[in-house]
């Protein structure tokens, strides 16, 4: 989890070396990193719980998790639920109205403000979308339901995803459609 | 300082006229409105941040005051208003910013009398080439969940219906809707929309287009 969080920090700072003071500055300045700090801590505590390690330290860890995630939820409105499986190196562009739960996100993804990635409660409340590696998701995008999004694809701002997206595609609009099937998102990621 | 206070009083009058059109604008009523509308807090805090970041003058006590209050005020905008406004966004006169917050604003200028509702994003760079920051004209009505991407200009008196995703400049007095957004009507007078805080999904009168 420590390596995953450092990968998240590198998405913000974009350098190889990251001294401790620089890391603290980044966490204070970036709302997304605060949310990810809480999320990674919670996932690590879940791992400790299943492995039955450090039983005396776990209550303090959960208290810290509650404090961080409560602050992030109330002040910044970023809800990264522990049921989501987020890969290393997530970048959260802005804050406000972000809901990520019961889904699988690959490594090196980007999300932004008002993004909803969650299961459709009316159909299947526990299985959400599965998103591949290096996917760029624009602001206000809604991915609600059991859809598959391929690696290196791009979901445009304001898109409403109602179907599976193949790898490397550019998906835009509401109702959404694949605009380009071979789109390189490496310079916006 | 005097300019700031007169601007604040004008803003409070603007909000009071929107929220309580019948009540007279007494000092007590204006204070109550100002305390009850977080949108006005966002606007006022943003004016402090704008002054402190753009009118830098080391000899002025007022600038130092603004510079010292900038940090807590920026924090309050984030936590209370859930909003993020870049410091060099110039708001020309009294404009309505959302009481619900959730405004991500990278616009370069916002005209007087504009109304901007919650969950609105300005200046979103997307899909290569749309890098830039928009200018919003005066008397513009922008509904909730709108995205304005790239360096474009929204003409005076335009209307953006809820859920619009706009990527190109629109002429004055036009109505835009949809994702991707397109102009659905021209020469539309949005004075009735701007008179209240009600949100409309469809345009109010169709008969005006027929006649």
Topology at a glance:
The complex is a heterodimer of chains A (189) and B (211).
Chain A lengths: L1 H12 L6 H10 L1 H21 L6 H19 L1 E3 L4 E2 L4 E2 L5 E3 L3 E2 L4 E2 L4 E3 L11 E2 L4 E2 L4 E3 L3 E2 L4 E2 L4 E2 L8 E3 L4 E4 L9
Parallel strand pairs in A: 1-4, 2-5, 3-6, 4-7, 5-8, 7-10, 8-11, 9-12, 10-13, 12-14
Antiparallel strand pairs in A: 14-15
Chain B lengths: L1 H18 L7 H10 L1 H17 L6 H19 L4 E2 L4 E2 L11 E3 L3 E2 L4 E2 L3 E3 L12 E2 L4 E2 L4 E2 L4 E2 L4 E2 L4 E2 L8 E3 L4 E4 L5 H4 L12 H4 L1
Parallel strand pairs in B: 1-3, 2-4, 3-6, 4-7, 5-8, 6-9, 7-10, 8-11, 9-12, 11-13
Antiparallel strand pairs in B: 13-14
Helix pairs in contact in B: 1-2, 1-3, 3-4
- Fraction of helical residues of chain A: 25-40%
Q: Class by helix and strand content of chain A?
A: alpha/beta
Rounded mean pLDDT score of chain A: 91
Query: How are the strands of the largest sheet of chain B arranged?
Result: 1-3-6-9-12
Amino- and carboxy-terminal Cα gap of chain A: 22 Å
Strand ordering within the main sheet of chain A: 1-4-7-10-13
Number of helices in the DSSP assignment of chain A? 4
Cα gyration radius of chain B (Å): 17 Å
Topology as H/E string of chain B?
HHHHEEEEEEEEEEEEEEHH
Count of helical stretches of chain B = 6
Helix content of chain B: 25-40%
Number of strands of chain B: 14
Mean pLDDT of chain B: 88
Number of strands of chain A: 15
Q: Which range does the strand content of chain A fall in? A: 15-25%
Q: What's the quaternary structure here?
A: heterodimer
Give a quick account of the main beta sheet of chain A: strands, pairing sense, barrel closure.
Answer: 5 strands, parallel
Given the C-alpha coordinates, what overall shape of chain B results? globular
Tell me about this structure.
The complex is a heterodimer of chains A (189) and B (211). By secondary structure, chain A is of the alpha/beta class. Chain A has helices at 2-13, 20-29, 31-51, 58-76, and strands spanning 78-80, 85-86, 91-92, 98-100, 104-105, 110-111, 116-118, 130-131, 136-137, 142-144, 148-149, 154-155, 160-161, 170-172, 177-180. Chain A contains four helices and 15 strands. The model of chain A has no long low-confidence stretch (mean pLDDT 91). Chain B is of the alpha/beta class and 211 residues long. Chain B has helices at residues 2-19, 27-36, 38-54, 61-79, 191-194, 207-210; strands spanning 84-85, 90-91, 103-105, 109-110, 115-116, 120-122, 135-136, 141-142, 147-148, 153-154, 159-160, 165-166, 175-177, 182-185. Chain B has a five-stranded parallel beta sheet. In chain B, strands 5-8-11-13-14 form a five-stranded mixed beta sheet, with no helix packed on it. The mean pLDDT of chain B is 88. Chain A binds chain B through residues 31, 75-77, 94-97, 113-114, 138-140, 154, 156-160, 170, 172-174, 183, 187-188, and chain B through 78-79, 82-84, 101-102, 104, 119, 121, 124-128, 145, 147, 149, 163, 165, 178-180.
